[in-house]
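As a warm-up, study this chain.
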Amino acid sequence: MGTIDAAQQDRAPGPDKGRDGRLGRILRSPLGWMLTGMAGVGLISGLTATGPGPVPVLGAAAAVAVYGLVMRRLAGRSTPETARAGAGRQALLGGATGLGFILVSASLISAFGGYSFSWAGNGFVAVVWSAVMVQLGAAVTEELLFRGLALQALEQLWGSRVALVVTGLFFGVAHLGTPGASVWSAIAIALEAGVMLGAAFLWRRSIWFVVGLHFAWNTAEQLLGIPVSGHTPEGLFTVDTHGSALLTGGDFGLETSIVPVLISVLLTVPMLVLARRGGGLLPRRRARR
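Now compare it with the structure written out below.
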């Protein structure tokens, strides 16, 4: 009887094993791997985002590695959205989209008398190098957080449409802590950045496409001397604003101008249509895998 009891005790899961099992199930759930991945990527971003030279880009590379590890080990899935095959083409296409978005927006605002630009006289190479390093690091880590982790996790729970709305709102709220932020700036960011970038990801299913879009957007703004979400880093030009903040975006920058908000809607709608036609929108019943 003692032998049987001992064998039963050996087979029975002890308290530690039971807790490990529950913890494993929690971490492997969509919210579990989302929060774990966001903690890892967010930590790397916090440590490297404002570092000197190539530190932000090295941090972005580390964030991609952490993202892949979390997806494989916890989410139990491969990561075709970060595949190296075709990454350059996707990034260039996204970059062209983002650059066009900013140049058209800034040109229209200028045509209505809102912006005038002058050469800043700063060192060309130093300014461009700094802008590329910082904005590339920020674009990669933010897209991993919001589109790679949050959107795809919530998509599994509630489907693509709800995930798009929730992550878009979250993206707007996350920018409330930036200088000059307001309720309107949060709404504008949610629409033109949160929802548009989410729609871009659902259409292309590529992190590199949205990274390219995000990177070109912020880098073009910075080099033109336009504040980027309330921050005014050193650029190649300086910009003087004239007229209503609704036209120019005021101290917060171009993102709170009505012009890019309207343009973003014109871009978001066809992206979502193409995503739906290509099977990129998951309804709730298919989202659980």
